[in-house]
Design brief:
The protein is of the alpha/beta class. It contains eight helices and five strands, in the order βαβααβαβαααβα. Strands 2-3-1-4-5 form a five-stranded parallel sheet, sandwiched between helices. The chain starts with a strand and ends with a helix.
Length: 186
């Protein structure tokens, strides 16, 4: 079992790279908005109920995949490096897979703000993430989250054997997926 966690700030291309990686491997993509969009018609993700439900759905999916005969799972996540709770969450979900003998791979994406603002409006993103279709609100959230939290790691901060950091400002999602596949022999 392989568990690939693709992380980075909003609109950096996590889901799009995940889709491309899914196409060239036997891995299944579970992007973070799959659960957010499921819950959002009932509870905003920012509410206690919304966060609780999203967390429950994700955990159940992780548990079932980890004990299945699937090749592996790609998960996308916005990781605030200055929040202990986010470090704890990443460790917790990795433990689900590692406790079943799975191998975890860390893929960090970074891109400049101008590129991310453009990606925030792409049809692919808006098709898969209805809660991002209000571009003004989505852009405000992107900027405010970036100002409030540190969404990319410092050099040397992540001490994992299976880790790669990719600046994908000038790279296509297909190119990034190939880099990941080759780096980790997926």
């Amino acid at each position: 079992m392989k568990f690939i966690i693709i992380f980075g700030p909003q609109a950096v291309g996590k889901m799009t790279v995940g889709h491309e990686l899914e196409k060239i491997t036997e891995l299944k993509l579970f992007h973070n908005h799959m659960t957010i969009e499921l819950v959002s018609p009932f509870f905003n993700y920012g509410t206690a109920a919304g966060k609780r439900l999203v967390g429950l759905f994700r955990r159940e999916i992780f548990e079932e995949v980890a004990k299945s005969d699937l090749e592996g799972l790609i998960f996308t996540y916005v990781w605030a490096f200055d929040l202990k709770a986010d470090w704890d969450y990443v460790n917790k979900i990795c433990d689900i897979f590692e406790s079943k003998g799975g191998v975890v791979y860390f893929v960090e994406l970074e891109a400049n703000l101008e590129e991310r603002l453009e990606r925030n409006k792409t049809p692919h993103r808006l098709n898969h993430k209805p809660t991002k279709r209000n571009i003004e609100r989505s852009e405000h959230d992107l900027r405010s989250t970036m100002e409030k939290y540190r969404l990319n790691s410092y050099d040397g901060e992540i001490h994992k054997e299976n880790y790669i950091k990719i600046n994908n400002t000038e790279l296509s999602p297909e190119e990034v997926a190939v880099i990941i596949k080759e780096k980790f022999h997926l």
